Amino acid sequence: MTLQFTVAIDGPAAAGKGTIARGLAERFGFAHLDTGLLYRAVARRTIDGTPAAIAAATLRLRDISRTDLRTPSVSEAASKVAANPEVRAALVAFQRDFATRDGGAVLDGRDIGTVIFPEAQVKLFVTASAEVRAHRRWLELTNAGHDVTEESVLADVMARDKRDSEREAAPLRPAEDAETFDTSDLSIEVALERANAIVAARLEQEK
User: Fold this and answer.
1) Nearest to 12 by CA among 202, 154, 185
2) Which of 4, 16, 60, 101 is the most exposed place for a label (fewest CB within 10 A)?
3) Each residue of 58-73: pLDDT tens digit?
4) Order of strands across the sheet with 122-127?
């Protein structure tokens, strides 16, 4: 018997949702999709000169595999293209197909549990304070060799939070039935342990 089981993880940038998603995928043998990479790949193509709607409609796996998708300029552009209804509509089918694949799937993003796959068996909303998230992102960027200040990263994080939460198309918010994790003072090990327990309990119910 094949298993179709979806875990939807949403939350703002640098809250820890990607780390939890990868941990769950490894623990339960699920496929993992970082849906933010879809928008980053579209953003990268717009920076290269392709109109956003066309970039989204013609997106290919090779675009998602690019190694230049986690720069500050791409992050900024990704938040802007994500507010484009044409872009979002073009990427919905890709994400929904992934969510229903045999063997189970974990998707992390900003509207998985609310828009892309509201029928997911498990929904998590992972968040943290803007200051904590900015510090994490600053460490990530400086370790990768980018010359940025923590103050500028905090400003970018707060601006992106505002855009993501106030956009008309699929604003960032927790699903009504999502389990919320605030990782401001929570280690990733504890957060992942809690997430593992939630998924394991739901899988047991599905038997």
Assistant:
1) 154
2) 60
3) 998 789 889 899 888 8
4) 31-34, 105-109, 6-10, 122-127, 179-182
